[in-house]
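Inputs:
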Amino acid sequence: MPAQQSIFLTGATGFLGRETLTRLLAADPRLRAFVLVRDVGRWSQLERECGHGRVIPVQGDLCTDGLGLPPDVRARIANEVTTIVHLAANTTFSSPLDHARAVNTLGTRHVLEIAGDCASAAHVAYVSTAFVAGRRTGVIAEDGHSASAGWVNAYEQSKYEAEQLVKEHASSWVILRPSTVVCDDVGGQVTQMNAVHRALNLYRQGLVAMMPGVTGSTVDAVTTSYVADGIALLAMRDDAVGKTVHLCAGEGALRLDELLDITYARWATDPVWRNRGIVRPAITDLRTYALFERTIEEIADASLKRIARALSHFVPQLALPKVFDTTNAEALLGRTAPPVRDFWLPMLDHMLATQSAASSASSLARVA
Amino acid sequence: MITSTGSCGISAIAYALPEHRRSVRELDALGQLESDPAMLEQFGFGHVYVAEEETPYSLALAAATTLLRENAVSPASIDTLLYCGTPSVAFAPAGSASDASREIASTRRFQYPATRLQYDLALECASALAIDQLACTSLFSAVRIARALIETGEARRVLCVSAEFFPECAGREAIYNCTSDAACAVLIDDSAERNRILASAHVTKGYYWEGDARRNEIVASYFPTAKHVIAETLRRAEWRPEDVTWILPHNISIRSWEILLGLTGIARERLWCRNIARVGHTLAGDNFINLRDALEEGSVRPGDRLLLFSYGYGAHWTALALEA
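Outputs:
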């Protein structure tokens, strides 16, 4: 009978973290999990959903030396933990570099210090992002990238820097790089809204004039289910050690123009929306997009400026066409990610249904 | 979207500007601008023409008279007159536009500039029509209607005249553009030797009728819709973006044009934009005033492929493809 394994997990309070934890616990009935939480009260609520009774919350903070763990807790982790799954991150694309680094880079350094404490020199599964590729274009290999191309936002840069720390300081590691998570599974349900959904809502409101892009630009997106499966399956796999794995749609990414058309067609099924004559955002080069952004900064009102700024932190990626190679992922997982086409429309349906329900509730509240 | 292709063309253009001209800095000193004058200069504006003694009608008459005289056009040869402009203020000097609006409540409301122009120009065979509510696209629409009348055999020679003023109380800025008072006359002939109209496209989006309430949505819709209308016009003319010799713009900010050129793939050097600084935005007349000046200075040569595009607040997007 194999020895009981214990993991230390960060980011368990997020939706992806919870899904990952559930899968890890289900895969190994003897597994114990220490989970780093900032707020034990909040965790208690979530724990009921994860269940199992094999989860030990430890209160701490990624941004603090030693994760802010009390010495006894740190000693216990050092004695028992064999694998660290580091998933917590500041995923806000608009964060300034020092804020992003404080959580993503320095936080990873703190996690690595804990890994170094462990008696058995814990294996580190670091959940990064496919977009550490930054401004690089073309086929993006799963192996290391150089920093020379630069990044679109501080999130990408701070995650890249964290990857370097992992490779440098962890005695054993696997780096898992998910693409943008847009819905829970191929059914399209959206539990956690992000910048993609906000951008789609702006498009629906007729507030997006243009998006950067080039011929062949694609949108790579994945489901929480695929990513959580991938992390849970690969975090502790011996044959994944020392590998970087793209948890991405890869060849299943959807062309930007097709994605905008599918989205338009879905929204245009509503005659009220169609009657407004809202058009698909124009696709343009980065220079023209930058000129438009500059003009908005100079002349537009505060709300339009906010919209332009929010988009500016990630939409330039659309003009940097890339295809994420998924060779390692396919070899290790034995499957590819669901193509974006399979869940994009269900995701839009879900967004519309949710908004419709929210709108009805709001109307009822007004009547009441 | 409405479209057509055919063989009639623009055989003559003339325009009239008020006597007084002011710089952006002077307008600012007079409290006639909303934006920083330095920014408006950066957007390409230099001077505008401001009516003091003139009325919209007097400029319309001047432009049309010049057109007939310069081209030796017999007034009797014109079978249709299309007038664009705001009738209620047509006879009022700029400073008294608000007084003129009171006349709407009397039978004086039936004193129309279109019919007076027909009489004053002695267009004895012409029926008169007026076009309104199309903002800066009204002269384009007149040209489109003229072309349709010619192609269906309803007319052979149509005189289109626009006259647009900004009353003194309105200031001299419209959405970051400096405005001039002006009138422009365009003659559409079934047998024009030059400026053959090859294609046109026009989109109206009524959702944006309430411009002030939908300002952000209009900013967002302007560019993709403009790109669409230009692309559609090029497609109907069977041109590629690189085939366009000149874009004759409506005289709005150069920045806005640079963005639109980036979207459409038409090179920046194809934009004939001298009048943005020299004249400013004359509302409906810009593109045709620019065509006249570009022809006169020799920039436009026979066979050149010309694209005219304009936007009318309220909201209309329109374009014409001409072969010079």
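Remarks. Chain B has two domains: 2-189, 196-323. The first helix of chain B runs from residue 24 to 29.
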